[in-house]
Amino acid sequence: xxxxxxxxxxxxxxxxxxxxxxxxxxxxxxxxxxxxxxxxxxxxxxxxxxxxxxxxxxxxxxxxxxxxxxxxxxxxxxxxxxxxxxxxxxxxxxxxxxxxxxxxxxxxxxxxxx
Amino acid sequence: xxxxxxxxxxxxxxxxxxxxxxxxxxxxxxxxxxxxxxxxxxxxxxxxxxxxxxxxxxxxxxxxxxxxxxxxxxxxxxxxxxxxxxxxxxxxxxxxxxxxxxxxxxxxxxxxx
Lengths: 114, 113
Known about the structure:
The structure holds 2 protein chains of 2 kinds. Chain A has strands spanning 4-7, 10-13, 19-25, 31-37, 43-50, 53-57, 64-70, 73-78, 87-94, 104-105, 109-113.
């Protein structure tokens, strides 16, 4: 069983569209994250949830809205997609909130906005 | 802006030699330091973590931490072609009361057979 699974793996869409990426973890972890990795491999945190509660919200356009229906799921909805949103989006989870713990990453979603 | 800096490379090392990867960070209060390995097209995976000054060894990997110099490094002994990947340094930093993991831009390592 995959520990952290996200779908879809690839997402190609037109500018202005709205899209969602789903993430689920079966590790029993309390904390989940969304990271964005740009073409230069820079991995930057976007959001962090602990037990469905938002604890980190980086300077991200409000077109990006995370939703955590339960602690095993963290979805990312993006409105009015722009060219600059093209990147790989990684979901991750960890046992606690303090970042001295191992992050488990999903396989990533390659988003291409045309 | 709290930062983590790495030389982006590419760093080319002959097979069997020692690969040395370096990382500096800006937040003096950081306590936890990690090295993630990312193969092309794959997700990052943790290979080492270190919390105390000095060296920490795990198999062919050694992490070195010097908090006074705000410097952390990763040594890979007896480098293998399978070690070819991008290595991401990550540092735990406090930001407005929340701790978050800040990644460097990564060093691309190529092991030459």
